[in-house]
Amino acid sequence: MKLKVDRTEDIRGEIIVPSSKSHTIRGFVFASLAEGESKLINALEAADTQAAINACKALGAGIEKKSGEFIVRGFSGKPKTDSRIDTLNSGTTTNLIMGTAALGDKKVLIDGDASIRKRTVQPLLDALNALGAKAVSVHKNGCPPVEITGRMKGGRVAVDCRSSQYVSSLLINCPLASQDTEIRILNLCEQPYIEMTLRWLDELGIRYENHDFRTIRIFGNQGYKAFEKTIPGDWSSATFLLAAGVMLGRDLMIKGLDMEDTQADKQVLSYLRKMGADIRIGKEGIVVNKSILTGRELDLNNTPDALPAISVLGCYAQGKTVIRNVAHARIKETDRIRVMTEVLIRLGAHVEEKEDGMVIEHSELHGAHVHGYHDHRVVMALSLAGMIAAGQTVIDTAEAVSVTFPDYVDIMKNIGAKIEIIE
Asked: CB of 24 within 8 A of CB of 45?
């Protein structure tokens, strides 16, 4: 599928942000681990969350949709094993479900698409082995497919936290181990996502001790009870709407976001305000208007998913924008630092790639045919670039937006963006 994007003069109207992918996937995993029947309200329905549903079903959960809500019958911390799980393109599902598989007593094979097969999970494999499971990369390259054989018992482990998902996997699953677990966190990245997982543990009554995110102790022999949870809007998806608003908006209203939520990409609001964005937060939602932005130095360590959109804003902003301290953006669906540098240069941008980020000068972009690299956030970021570029931009592999934001194109068209599917 390809997207055709023409220069857009302004966008206006109201948008309801899709539900949070991160919360939805956690919700399905927690509910599957629980005893009894749980309910997820307003869960995101997208390719990544379908991967989580499939994985949880493969391990023994019963999941069905009734009247717009998902009912999950958990397997009480005892996953069915001898399973083969396809996590599609979902890195979150892959990592979280690896810990769940380690609670069983037989082998589980976990695999995904070509992108997943390039994403290292070695730190999590090492951790699961240290905690009593047997966890191996089938091709011995530290990437899926992986074979997990439980049962994980608990103990002490140090985890290289180049991805917060490694730690979240342990936090979610180790309460069900027979012994206490002490996790020493090395090279902490994406702390808000760990905070999100800890908030879930708080809500579900799990006992742990957090020593300033250096060491977290989880008490063993616990269990999850059934629960009901309403999933909030997704700040990562909202990043693209906010970015579009500050470049093109005319009283654009964005609804459905929880200002008290722990999602990392809520920090995008502070980045935009630092650059001079006209953003007003009210009871009904967030109102965004076209703004004169000034380039700033931005530390994206907590928000690697925001890099594609922020790099486009760097082209729009006056002066120089420096994105730093986000080397872990290289281990997402693509190496997003390299990819965004390459595609923005093709669109006429003045960009310099750095080991841990990018340096971007104000640039007058022009349309071109560009590769979306099968990465949903790259495709959406390129569509934003197309809206401010002279001429027409065509983006391939645009079907990737279905991973987290299936209605993206329709929503953008409804508020006035000149965007359409052409193939």
From this structure: no
> Considering only CA atoms, which of 253, 256, 207, 205 is closest in space to residue 230?
256
Tell me the pLDDT tens digit for each residue of 141-168: 999 999 999 899 999 999 999 999 999 9
User: Helices 235-248 and 376-388, interaxial angle, to 10°?
Assistant: 10
DSSP at 139:
T
How far is it, in rounded angstroms, from Cα 262 to Cα 296? 24
Residue 305 among the catalytic residues: yes
CA distance 213 to 200: 16
What is residue 369's three-state secondary structure? strand
For residue 200, which amino acid is it? Answer: W
Q: Name residues whose C-beta falls within 8 Å of residue 260's C-beta, 6 or more positions apart in sequence.
A: none
Q: Which residue reads 């935009």 in tokens?
A: 272
Burial label for 209, CB within 10 Å (0-12, 13-18, 19+), is: exposed
Relative to beta strand 215-218, strand 208-211 is antiparallel
pLDDT digits (tens, 9 = 90+) for 202-231: 999 999 999 999 999 999 999 999 999 999
What is the Cα–Cα distance from 346 to 372, expressed in whole angstroms? 12
Helices 47-58, 21-33: axis angle to 10 degrees equals 10
Give me the pLDDT at residue 82, please: 77
Give the three-state DSSP class for 296. Answer: coil
pTM for this predicted structure:
0.94
Instruction: Select which of 48, 160, 305, 396 is catalytic.
Output: 305
Residue 81 has a pLDDT of 78
The dihedrals phi and psi of 333, each to the nearest 5 degrees, come to -55, -35
Q: What strands lie across the sheet with 320-324, from one edge to the other? A: 297-299, 320-324, 357-361, 350-354
User: What are the structural domains, with CATH classification, of the chain?
Assistant: 3-18+233-421 (3.65.10.10), 21-230 (3.65.10.10)
CB 340 within 8 A of CB 358: yes
Q: Can you say how many angstroms the Cα of residue 225 is from the centroid of all Cα atoms in its chain?
A: 26
